[in-house]
């Protein structure tokens, strides 16, 4: 039996039933293929992002800077406008899945995933999250439902977030200073996202996986504030913005919008940090500036 007959070529692709113009991010199509031995594409350029996940086999991917020999459990992301080529092995050709995506935010999203133009390859993928999500996009598009467009975007984010997790695990911060900075940055991001909710320092530490005493110590060393004080100042700053921009909101509504349910406590803390009450601050905004 010839090697080609052992690896009979298959090809299947499904396109997004929704046509996009000037959208920030969207999936164009998704497919899968068993390639023939020495199946080759390029050198060529694409005008969209094209992500391949290799399920079986071996082959070579060539970017403008590097040559990568890739096997099962690897991904390679082709960036638009970059000259690339890729070819399956002569004896053990690739079976892979692929998705294409584009949009004004596609480059930023790809870079944030870690799969930038300087690092377009991801290896040692042990979990099936990425191939399963890629298959789900193709299956959704085959239904021809317009809702599959929204579903595909969710799956795309899932794929790229998994890539980011894998890459961050392979390239961890080194040294105590880097670890401290990473922890403090995580706390700041957590508070910035959760300040409108009843944030508990205990729950935050548990969610981020840090000991409370350790986190409080390094946070104060880096910011000169305890996490509790930082959160309060963040809430007061956000409330000042609401007092300026939303005059129709009552003081109680402003306080609740920044995660403080006790309006009296909010007013006391606002005056302590800003030198005047929320009401006085709002009134001062309406006074004309002396010429």
From TrEMBL:
Residues 185-284 form the HTH araC/xylS-type domain. Signal peptide: none annotated. One of its GO terms (molecular function) is sequence-specific DNA binding. Pfam families: AraC_binding, HTH_18. Keywords: DNA-binding, Transcription, Transcription regulation. CDD domains: cupin_MmsR-like_N. The keyword Ribosomal protein does not apply. PANTHER family: ARAC-FAMILY TRANSCRIPTIONAL REGULATOR (PTHR43280), MMSAB OPERON REGULATORY PROTEIN (PTHR43280:SF30). This is Multiple sugar metabolism operon regulatory protein. It comes from Paenibacillus pini JCM 16418.
């Amino acid at each position: 039996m010839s090697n080609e007959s052992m690896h009979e070529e298959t090809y299947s692709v499904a396109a997004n039933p929704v046509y996009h113009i000037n959208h920030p991010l969207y999936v164009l199509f998704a497919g899968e293929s068993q390639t023939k031995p020495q199946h080759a594409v390029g050198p060529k350029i694409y005008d969209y992002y094209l992500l391949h996940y290799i399920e079986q086999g071996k082959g070579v991917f060539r970017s403008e800077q590097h040559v990568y020999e890739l096997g099962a459990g690897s991904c390679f992301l082709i960036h638009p406008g970059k000259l690339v080529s890729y070819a399956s092995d002569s004896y053990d050709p690739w079976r892979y899945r692929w998705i294409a995506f584009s949009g004004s935010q596609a480059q930023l999203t790809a870079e944030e995933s870690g799969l930038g133009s300087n690092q377009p390859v991801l290896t040692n993928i042990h979990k099936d999250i990425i191939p399963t999500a890629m298959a789900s996009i193709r299956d959704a598009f085959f239904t021809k439902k317009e809702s599959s467009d929204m579903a595909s975007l969710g799956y795309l984010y899932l794929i790229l977030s998994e890539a980011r997790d894998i890459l961050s695990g392979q390239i961890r911060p080194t040294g105590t200073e880097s670890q401290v900075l990473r922890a403090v940055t995580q706390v700041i991001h957590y508070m910035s996202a959760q300040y409108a909710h009843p944030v508990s320092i205990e729950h935050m530490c548990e969610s981020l996986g840090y000991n409370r005493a350790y986190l409080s110590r390094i946070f104060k060393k880096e910011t000169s504030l305890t996490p509790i004080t930082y959160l309060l100042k963040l809430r007061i700053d956000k409330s000042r913005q609401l007092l300026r921009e939303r005059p129709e909101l009552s003081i109680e509504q402003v306080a609740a919008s920044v995660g403080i349910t006790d309006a009296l406590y909010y007013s006391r803390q606002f005056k302590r940090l800003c030198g005047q009450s929320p009401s006085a601050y709002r009134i001062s905004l309406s006074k004309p500036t002396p010429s």
